[in-house]
Amino acid sequence: MTKEKETRREFLKGAAASAGAGAVAALVPAAQAQTDSGDTASELRPTAERHGAFFNRQQALTVAAVAERIMPGAPGKPGATDADVLNYIDLALAGAYEDQQYFYRRGLDALDAYCRATHGAPFASLDADDQDATVAALEADQADGFDWPSAGAFFNTLRTHTMEGMFADPVYGGNKNFAGWNLIGFPGAQFTYTPAEVTSAEPFDRAPTIGLQSQATRRG
Amino acid sequence: MATTRTDVVIVGAGGAGGIIAAELAKAGMQVVALERGPRLNTSDFAGQDELRFFQRQDTRPDVKRQPVTWRRNASERATPLGSLAYGNQAGGGTVHYGAVSWRMHEDDFQARTNTIERYGADAIPSDSSLADWPLRYADLEPFYDQAEYELGVSGKAGNLRGTRIDGGNVFEAPREREYPLPPLLVEQPSLVFDEAARDMGYHPFSTPRAILSQPYNGRAGCSYCGFCQGFGCHMGAKSSILVTKLPEADATGNFELVTGAMVHRVNSDGDRATGVSYWLPDGSDNTVEADLVILAPFIYDNTRLLLLSQTPQFPNGLANSSGHLGKHVMTHLMARLLVKFDDRRMNAYMGPSAQKHSIDDFNADNFDHSGHDFIRGSQISIGTHNLQGGPISVSTINPPPGVPRWGAEYRDFIADAFTRYASMVAQTENLAYADQAIDLDPNVKDAWGLPAPRMTYDWRRPNERARVEFMLQRMEEIGEAMGASQVWRAPLSPGRPGAHHEGGTRMGSDPAESVVNRYGQTWDISNLFVVGSSTFPTMSGFNPTLTIQALAYMTADAIVNRYRGSPGPLV
Q1: Which residue segment(s) compose the domain that A194 sits in?
Q2: Residue A130, domain member (yes or no)
Q3: Which of A168, B35, B201, B536 could bond to B502 as cystine, CB 3.0-4.6 Å?
Q4: Is the residue at A127 inside a domain?
Q5: pTM of the model as a whole
């Protein structure tokens, strides 16, 4: 566990203790699940044998592979796997987006059937060209076998959630080690920019990238 | 079930309701405000969290609990809108807005008369209900001034008692005095925008915003963190009603705010309102009896509440003898342009994120429309896409033609563009049309079992299309002059309602042609007022909030100084 994670956990525990309220205390396990999520996610990667918070192993393999085609990594350019987008989506579907579980189940089933019918194998087993052709068919809403969600709607949701996993604050389980923010040059939740900085045509480099966890520490 | 009694009950403690509550309570009236959402405070916004506040819209209505449906025309079945932009808590939309705070032009109050004089009656589309306001700019000037000074607005005057001042908006209506606070800092995108606009002969200026450029009234100045539109301000530098008027109302001892209160009916006895009924989260049905009932929710609920409160005397909706309730709805048409630079960073994620700097050269009738196939206009501003500069927002930008939305090429695009792009927006005026309307959806109900408000709306009319295309072309020219390496258009919406909503309970000078008078007092029921943008007869090319607030001050003044002494019609 990183120092950052420890401090956020301590912050939440401290908040619960000082409030002494059941409602606040009940938040802690959920928050811990999130701060521990980096560890869980590494076990969900293609060699994984364990289930995630929502996805079964096959679903996890598929979502990780699709996300990586939407935002592929390259040397010096972190992608969806580097950012742990799979972990973000898995946690979101087990929590804030639980109303989209059926949408994902149906979409993933249709995607699996489409890939087997078209390429003779599930998505995660295809080579990169066949994976890209499949994603392109989804985006164009031209993959057979989808009813609800439509292929296009399923692509749009996967794309949106991949972007959220790349660029949301790491407390939500993605954007691991600020992979997404480093890719694009976003310094995160800075408290302030100086007059010289807002006027400048140069990249911002005064302070390290900052997320909500270190903010919590500073405020605590 | 409880019944209480008060002098004044206000529905909605937002941009308008909060002002009226504070002003009436300060004058010694007992005020109860009923707010559907919670009351948050500045420490609730401590997280600069784009996922929670921008993407998941934490301060906005839950569209599943509070659906609003939309159809393009009366022959379609309406479906729920996927997101709603208004506020859902004490302070309303002023908690998460971009805080852009314009005064409307003198001409905006007389658009019909002026259009006919300058271009002839044929210039107005035959199906448009374009109308003059029942008041003039001069009537509202003292209340614009009061709003700017009491709330805290940063800007530079462009017209001080008739003297034009370079660097301010030289097209603005004459103001009696300078803004209370100097303009916010000029950021890199605005520097480049201003230089190009000046070279082209336009008149750029810092957009007036209710964001403190310096400490003011005990609140800290803006830190330029960039988590602005879509977010509650984590340091209270945004002059929301939550940190300005609600504390004033609290201090009087005459004010009670009830949160979680879902008002479902305005009660009346003949041509007199007697109070309102509301549900609390525990399911209880409660009633406040009041001498004065003031409706100040977002525009959907003004129309919906009056429709739901029908009586034998008012079978088409309370206070709707005119038949105009729910009609003449307008929204801003968003013409948007992206620019990207190879030779510099824009760093558009820094600083207040809505319209940073603007030109007003193509707004209202500030330019000659002869030879154009449209009337009215838009301000044009530089800032961020979606008025919010974080990476999730930027990921929604449609990349330039030829660049896909995913894959290695897209990854390289967003990696390059995030710090090098800026966005222009023309929030374009939408004329009033009677059939742009709100009514009750017969099929969709909200979480309380009430019919959802239903919008019938499609902005894509000839006048509107021509105006939007004109603005896109002007923005393209500015983008080229800025030296951008790429300039491209964002897609237009497929007819959907845009930003800001106005109309539904329009004000006028003729009771047969309008729902309320200039004070928001309903023509039919003199102790029932409606305050907010739903009373606007025309919308202008400006964000509506400061005008909503000025109207709220004017109504409060009329109630305290005239109505209270002799209740009855104010005109």
Answers
A1: 3-215
A2: yes
A3: B536
A4: yes
A5: 0.93
